[in-house]
Write a structure and sequence with these properties.
Layout (H helix, E strand, L loop, with lengths): L1 E6 L3 H11 L4 E7 L3 H11 L2 E2 L3 H5 L5 E4 L6 H10 L4 E4 L6 H14 L3 E4 L6 H12 L5 E9 L6 H5 L4 H4 L2 H11 L3 E9 L5 H4 L5 E8 L4 E7 L7 E8 L3 E4 L25 H4 L1 H15 L9 H20 L3 E2 H5 L1
Length: 334
């Protein structure tokens, strides 16, 4: 049985608390947050133990740590866990910028401590089936990949202010999954975007709607769509097209689209409300995989190296939006 620590109890952290306390292999969960009242409330709700500081949590004899604090704290907290030799699960991203992510990755690699990064789509049954189809070769040569992430509403503006922007906060999930699915690296990015909702996006140097075209080193092209306003629900879909076949993920009964064809009723289910209900089982599988890593198994999800590559794609997209031109990954890495 495993004792875990959980740092950060905001939206995703509180969600992880519920998931972790329901995993059979987790015998005890210690939680902490900069807001002691929130830690106490979450602990009482899910049968966890509240701890009043990160240092006390890391010194409490735990076996591993889940870092779910705000993005600007990821690097410092992850390194603090690694320095204690504790296997760590860090929600994406591992740092606020690609350059910082690289430095964090070097320190983690030198430590030898396993760190898994939170890209849960890899654990979704449909996405995993797409990966299996691509790896099996049934699609033939890949030519186009389309990935979509559209939130029903933006997170609080205080979160947006420190998120690093739509490419580092939202589209990174798409960047990770298209790299993982295709097995190819992105070599060039062209990004554009607009602000059509809250003007604070502009004030914070961000956009609420974005489109990104990527070129892979294997010749395929990718199209990523990201948006903060999608009133019908949470839309997350993936299409992979090859010379011989095409496969999709996310076209289930809860896909948040209205079919305009009068002869068709699909999709018939309640639209997905948010990423937490769309990926409930994927999050559970992801954290269960981390528990197995804590017990000595290999990392089954995204690695720190994967997270660094994704961070550079986000960096290139951010630069492309600023300059209005395509940007090669090697330009921003130089």
């Amino acid at each position: 049985m495993t004792t875990l620590g959980l740092i950060g109890l905001g939206r995703i952290g509180a969600f992880h608390a519920e998931t972790l306390t329901n995993l059979p292999a987790v015998s005890n969960l210690l939680v902490t947050d900069e807001r002691p009242d929130v830690a106490a409330e979450v602990a009482a709700k899910y049968g966890a133990t509240a701890v009043d500081s990160v240092d006390k949590l890391l010194s409490a004899g735990i076996d591993g740590v889940v870092v779910a604090a705000a993005t600007p704290a990821h690097a410092e907290l992850t390194l603090a866990c690694v320095e204690r030799g504790l296997p760590t699960f860090c929600e994406k991203p591992i740092a606020s910028t690609a350059a910082e992510s690289t430095r964090v990755a070097e320190a983690i690699a030198a430590s030898g401590v396993p760190v898994q990064v939170g890209y849960q789509r890899r654990f979704d049954a449909a996405f995993a089936a797409v990966k299996q189809a691509v790896d099996g070769g049934s699609l033939g040569h890949l030519h186009t990949v389309r990935s979509t992430t559209m939130d029903p509403a933006p997170p609080p503006m205080d979160y947006i202010k420190g998120s690093g922007g739509i490419f580092r906060d939202c589209a990174v999930h798409d960047f990770d999954v298209i790299r993982w699915i295709t097995g190819q690296n992105v070599i060039e990015v062209y990004a554009t975007g607009s602000v059509q909702g809250d003007p604070l996006f502009t004030e914070y140097g961000d956009v609420d709607t974005a489109a990104i075209v990527v070129r892979f080193d294997g010749g395929a092209l990718g199209v990523v769509s990201a948006a903060r306003y999608n009133g019908r629900g949470y839309d997350c879909r993936l299409e992979v097209h090859g010379f011989d076949d095409a496969v999709v993920a996310g076209w289930d009964r809860g896909a948040p689209v209205h079919n305009a064809d009068p002869a068709e009723s699909f999709p018939t289910g309640q639209p997905h409300h948010f990423f937490m209900d769309r990926f409930t089982e994927a999050f559970r599988a992801e954290l269960d995989a981390f528990v197995k890593t804590v017990a000595g198994g290999p990392i089954q999800g995204a690695t720190v190296s994967d997270a660094v590559e994704v961070a550079w794609i986000a960096e290139a997209a951010t630069e492309s939006l600023r300059r209005g031109v395509p940007v090669r990954i090697e330009e921003v890495r130089a």
